[in-house]
Amino acid sequence: MTILKIAALIAALAAPTAVLAQAAAPAPAPVASAPAYPAIADFAAAVRGSNAFRTASQQVQTQYKAQIDAYNARSQPLQAELQRSATEIRTLQQNNSPEATVNPKIQAFQNRQQAIQTELAPLAAPFERPLAYAEEQITAKLDQATRNAMNAKRVNILLRPEAVAFAMPTSNITGDITQQLNALVPTVSTAVPANWQPGGQGATAPTTPAAPAATPRRNQGR
User: Fold this and answer.
1) Which long-range contacts (CB under 8 A, 24 or more apart) does 83-86 make?
2) Per the count of CB atoms within 10 A, which of 114, 115, 167, 202 is most buried?
């Protein structure tokens, strides 16, 4: 099992909207056109599914294998510890145990979870950083790729999947956005500039706001 299976993160990107311009003078008669439709898309999945990101992930797995192995060796027993605590808490809740018994255990679990995340962060940093840099380079073209996909599919409204109760598979254009990203960003670099920070803080970082940095899978006690 690879640690580079990226956790599902919600990209903080606004869904682009189509702007329809009207001619100054009315046409003599309305011109029929093909209808436009709403659609859904998962921006984070579109970025992570791109060829550039997949290639970058493979490069990072190879280049930082020792660091990834060290992370796994330390994180696996800690994840098992959190899982045992979570199971104990769920059992107490299912048995309607008093809050005086359950609440301290929940607080202890949360404190331990935070301590584990703090402990693991330095171990994950070496391979998280190049992945975040690769993701940011791709995300810099996400807006353009999304608009291209919307135009190609005649989509006039784009929603996030979690905002929709039900949608037919054909209304999901995540794959179309990924295809556009493949064309716009064939490759990215995993050689992180020394002064780069996620979110465009470094002098050489892309200026377009980026999605949150990719992170290794970490147990959340579920």
Assistant:
1) 83/219, 83/221, 85/109, 85/112, 85/221, 86/221, 86/222
2) 202
